[in-house]
Write a structure and sequence with these properties.
Layout: E1 3-9, H1 11-14, H2 22-32, E2 36-43, H3 47-60, E3 63-67, H4 78-86, E4 91-93, H5 95-107, H6 114-118, E5 121-123, E6 127-129, E7 138-142, E8 151-155, H7 159-176, E9 182-189, H8 194-200, H9 202-206, E10 212-219, E11 223-231, H10 235-253, E12 257-259, H11 265-276, E13 280-284, H12 290-296, E14 305-310, H13 314-319, H14 325-331, H15 336-350, E15 354-360, E16 374-381, E17 384-391, H16 396-419
Parallel strand pairs: 1-2, 1-3, 3-8, 13-14, 13-15
Antiparallel strand pairs: 4-5, 6-7, 7-8, 9-11, 9-12, 10-11, 15-16, 16-17
């Protein structure tokens, strides 16, 4: 199997000023192609540190990908270090990248400066993949067998440009490396903690053939993505064997599985609503619009989503949604009764087929009756109203995410029950 290292270069990463998203996107693309990423590291803008670390990575990996340090300012020293590392004797101007730089500046109404022109200068021992999205080209250094016997790809650090270069990088890798066939199949699971899920499927996982590998990829908004991968073999055989294992896994997990793609709860809810010709609205208190935000991220959601009321204040719950004041006085704002009344109120207000509501305590404070992290969820529909209570122990931001995800999943399960048959 081909092994790869990913290195980010720049002090801004090390001091926490910039979050490194490039590495995760690159790693996902490499893994999808059957290339095993064995290391990720961040290096500051220091010549010796860059040289020492890259020499080490090139000696250990078949492919090394760097991002960052290719800009026009004085602290962007990566290109010079790569020239030294590769034994280049000078720099040459790449006409194609220079033309792209000229076009970019012209569209922005800017003049070509010497610093801009210098970005088209590359070490004479590198190959160039033109960067159509920015000014710094992707540089490719192929080290011979008597050196490192590896390839280094140097990408710009701007995420838009680095991610945009991935298809070109992967095409070049496929042209130069014999990649093993790999099959991935994902199941999206919601409603089980990672530890509980692992315990439930342990007998199935323990019986997997050794050429198959299962990964647990949790996220507060989407649950857990189970990714089953099979390395080596013939593609058709891989597909059949993986599908057989996925079928067994689905039988174990039942309706905890909501998709067989890298999917989201909101997209799954949208497909159910659209397929049945039903509409949805939302009444949100503690989630503050998070549910509505997630739903409207899905392209085409206007076909089934009518709108929402962010009823953060008690007065809005009463005057807009029609929650009876005596209900709030008797049961409290964070209660099954109020969640039900909110869902029924927004359903009546908008005329939707279904409505989902949330009322809870995201933090940092609780109340006399409920601890921080408590949420009541309501779902109202043609067959009546249901409520669900959940409690979490996270910070405010994570609680809001979990509340929204739980509400979408409760809505999903309600739709499955109502629409089956």
């Amino acid at each position: 199997m081909i092994h790869a290292s990913i290195c980010t270069i720049g002090n801004e990463i090390l001091i926490g000023q910039v979050v490194d998203t490039n590495s995760s996107r690159l790693a996902a693309a490499l893994e999808e192609a059957g290339i095993r990423v064995t290391r990720m590291l961040s290096i500051g803008d220091d010549r010796k540190e860059i040289l020492d670390n890259l020499r080490n990575e090139l000696s250990l990996s078949d492919i090394v990908i760097t991002t960052g340090g290719l800009g026009p300012t004085k602290d962007d020293i990566t290109k010079g270090v790569l020239a030294e590392l590769s034994g280049s004797t000078g720099f040459v101007e790449h006409a194609g990248q220079l033309s792209i730089i000229h076009d970019i500046l012209h569209r922005r109404g800017l003049d070509m400066l010497e610093a801009n022109r210098a970005q088209a200068q590359v070490p004479d021992r590198c190959e160039v993949i033109e960067n159509r999205l920015g000014t710094a080209p992707v540089m490719v250094f192929r080290f011979p067998e008597n050196s490192f016997g590896a390839t280094l790809y140097a990408l710009p650090g701007v995420p838009f440009e680095a991610v945009g270069a991935i298809p070109d990088i992967m095409r070049d890798i496929r042209n130069h490396y014999p990649l093993e066939p790999i099959m991935h199949h994902s199941l999206m699971v919601y409603g089980l903690a990672e530890s509980a899920l692992s315990e439930q499927i342990a007998p199935w996982e323990d019986a997997l053939p050794e050429e198959m590998h299962l990964a647990y990829l949790p996220h507060p908004l989407t649950g857990i993505r189970l990714r089953l991968s099979m390395y080596g073999g013939i593609r058709e055989d891989q597909k059949k064997k993986v599908e057989e294992q996925i079928l067994r896994l689905k039988e174990i997990l039942g309706n905890k599985v909501y998709s067989e793609e890298d999917d989201t709860l909101e997209a799954t809810v949208g497909r159910l609503l659209k397929g049945a010709g039903k509409t949805l609205s939302a009444a949100e208190s503690c989630t503050g619009g998070e549910i509505s935000h997630l739903i409207t991220l899905v392209p085409g959601s206007s076909a089934y989503y009518l709108g929402s009321v962010t009823s953060y204040a008690v007065s809005v719950k009463e005057r807009v949604l029609g929650v009876p004041p005596e209900t709030i006085e008797k049961a409290g704002v964070v209660s099954s009764e109020v969640a039900a009344a909110m869902a029924e109120g927004v359903r009546k207000l908008t005329g939707s087929d279904y409505a989902v509501s949330t009322t809870g305590l995201a933090g940092p404070d609780g109340d006399a009756f409920n601890p921080v992290g408590t949420v009541w969820i309501g779902v109202a529909g043609p067959k009546g109203t249901k409520t669900l209570k959940r409690q979490f122990r996270n910070d405010r931001e994570r609680n809001i995410q979990r509340f929204a995800a739980e509400a979408l999943n409760f809505l999903r399960l309600t739709l499955l029950d109502d629409l089956k048959g």
